[in-house]
Amino acid sequence: MTILPKILYAFRALPIFIPRAYFSSLQGAVNAFLWNYRRPRIKFPVLSRRIEAGGLGVPDFAKYSRAVHVAAMTVCLGYASRPQWAVMEAIALTPHDLRVLLWVPPPYRPRGVFASLFTTTILSLRIWDSMFLRISGTGPLSRAAPLKMFQYILPHFSAQCWVAKGVFNLCQLTDKSGVLEFASVQSKFHLNDSYFLSYCQLRSYLRTQGFTAFYSIHTPALTLIESLGVSQLLPKGLISIGLNAIMTDRELPLWRYHTAWEKDLERSIEPELWAAVFRRDVGVSRNATLLETSRKVLYRWYWTPDKMSKFAPSSSSECWRCGSQTGTYMHIWWQCPLLIPFWNMVVEFATVVVSTPIPMDPGFVLLGLGGPKLTRQQTRMTFHIMSTALLLIAQRWKSDTVPSLGLLKTYMTRDRTYDSMAIEFLSVTPPKQDPWELWDIYLVKQCVQRGESRPNDREEVNVSEVPE
Ligand SMILES: [Zn+2]
User: Fold this and answer.
1) Other Cβ atoms closer than 10 A to 39
2) What pLDDT band is residue 24 in, cutting at 50, 70 and 90?
3) Contact (CB, 8 A) for 271 and 285
4) Between the CA of residue 360 and those of 266, 357, 456, what are the distances in Å?
5) What pLDDT does 39 receive?
6) Confidence class for position 397, pLDDT limits 50, 70, 90
7) Verdict on whether the full-model pTM lies above 0.85
8) Residue 232 falls in which region: left (phi positive, over 0), alpha (psi -120 to 50) or beta
9) How far lies 269's CA from each of 263, 276, 380, in Å?
10) HSE-CB for 19 with a 13 A CA cutoff
11) Average pLDDT of span 382-386
């Protein structure tokens, strides 16, 4: 979306708190444009999720605004590559250190210390605090917290003696089973017995905050921002990292389409299986139409005769193809007797192209659920074949015609040509593994079988002659 960078620039430059009403009107205008001023068929919280989390990555401006500020604070966690403004902020805060203060719970921070900061930094800090439970994997006390933080919380706690022994962050005092016993800490960092009092002080505080119990049950890994806080090395794309932190769910939410598919496929689908379906679609094809079609089928965006008849009683609930059975979602996409031969051909064709048996399973064919273990290239090719088949069916909506396998091959050939042209003329960097390798091998095999010298698609229909 080309307007996103422009809006992000305003979010970064304006040192004011933007009210919720502004985001509602901005989002409303963009969403109305996306849906062509009609009623949305898919909920915005679904669409705004990342592709790997089951959405289509439609920008959620309120979340982007918060991500910008979280990114600004993450910049301050870096050591060597901080921008000039962050260095100026660090000097203004001396003897305090923002890399430490960011992890200190707000009530324990020294009062008045932030008065010398830029207004944008104060705003970013406020948003960082409001998002902290998403930034930290262990609640209000993060494992990335530097031990220097406890000087603000525990009276007479000396972090310096720990730092002298190479213990900088809380995560160094934990392992998979929770907070380490003193004997383990002592042998790990070669400490003498004088550290025992300081260790007990720390451990007792962690217990009172519920950190020990929470951590020993959940043992969460460091979140990405936490690991940046520990390493103090800044990668590129901090806004995306901030956005991921804000949008990451502790558990995958269950949407209505999840339960509808479970009912149709007559099986329970674990959240991990859904997560695998969503992950499959990341970077799977440069053809946005294919991803859109596959996601529309997944979201149950299409209105079938059965559904239409419920809010328009005058319309028939019978399938427009066979005219003999109720046009439910599964019937229209899979079970219709006129469609079954097409799906048989497609599955057989996919089996030949990827050289692995593809099951005649609606869960796998329509959604990519489960199925055989495939390589990345095989997954991409299977996605391409199946979503092209779905596109061809969608193009014949409310019609009694069934697409042919020849047409599917023509669409595949067209996409292969477009991809080559994009690499040749648009300076698009080709992926490390050629996604079309299996397709090219299939074409060469076909030529060898026919005794021809080069691929020939004479038998296939010209796509421009086919009515949409
Ligand atoms: Zn039918």
Assistant:
1) 5
2) very high
3) no
4) 15, 9, 29
5) 85
6) very high
7) no
8) left
9) 10, 11, 22
10) 3
11) 94
Residue 258 CA, ligand 1 centroid: distance in Å: 24
Distance from the alpha carbon of residue 457 to the mean position of ligand 1, in angstroms: 31
- Written as six digits, the tokens of 349 are 């064709």
Task: Say yes or no to pLDDT of 461 above 50.
Answer: no
Distance 402 CA to ligand 1 centre (A): 11
Give 262 Cα–ligand 1 centroid separation in angstroms. 21
CA of 319 relative to ligand 1 center, distance in Å: 5
Omega of the bond leading into 403 within 30 degrees of 0 (cis): no
pLDDT tens figures, 201-248: 999 998 888 887 777 777 778 888 888 888 888 888 888 888 888 887
Task: Kindly give the distance from the C-alpha atom of residue 318 to the centroid of ligand 1, in angstroms, as a whole number.
Answer: 8
CA–CA dist 226, 151 (Å, integer): 20
Instruction: State the Cα torsion 217-221-223-229 to the nearest 10°.
Output: 110
In the DSSP assignment, the letter for residue 43 is -
Average pLDDT over residues 186-214: 88
Q: How many residues can be counted in the chain?
A: 468
Residues 182 and 460: their CA atoms lie apart, in Å, by: 74
Handedness of CA 74, 76, 82, 84 (dihedral sign): positive
**Ligand 1 centre from 463 Cα, in Å?**
26
pLDDT bin (cut points 50, 70, 90) of residue 84 is confident
Predicted confidence at residue 332, as pLDDT, reads 95
- Closest to 127 measured CA to CA, from 46, 201, 69: 69
Which of 255, 270, 243 shows the shortest CA–CA distance to 74?
A: 243
Residue 2 is predicted with a pLDDT of: 77
List Cβ neighbours of 115 (8 Å cut-off, separation of 6 or more). Answer: none
Paired strand residues for 318: 326
- Ligand 1 mean position, distance from CA 333 (Å): 9
Task: Give the dihedral sign, CA 35/37/38/41.
Answer: positive
pLDDT at 343 over 90: yes
For residue 80, give the nearest of 233, 210, 213, 276 by alpha carbon: 233
Single-letter amino acid, residue 310: K
Q: How far are the Cα atoms of 158, 172, 201, 202 from residue 155, in angstroms, in the given order?
A: 9, 22, 9, 11
Q: Compute the 3-state secondary structure of the chain and give helix, strand, coil in percent, each to the nearest 5.
A: 60, 0, 40
Reading the block at residue 457, the tokens are: 């698609």
Measure 257 CA to ligand 1 centroid, in angstroms.
22
Q: Is 193 left (phi over 0), alpha (psi -120 to 50) or beta?
A: alpha
pLDDT surpassing 80 at residue 463 = no
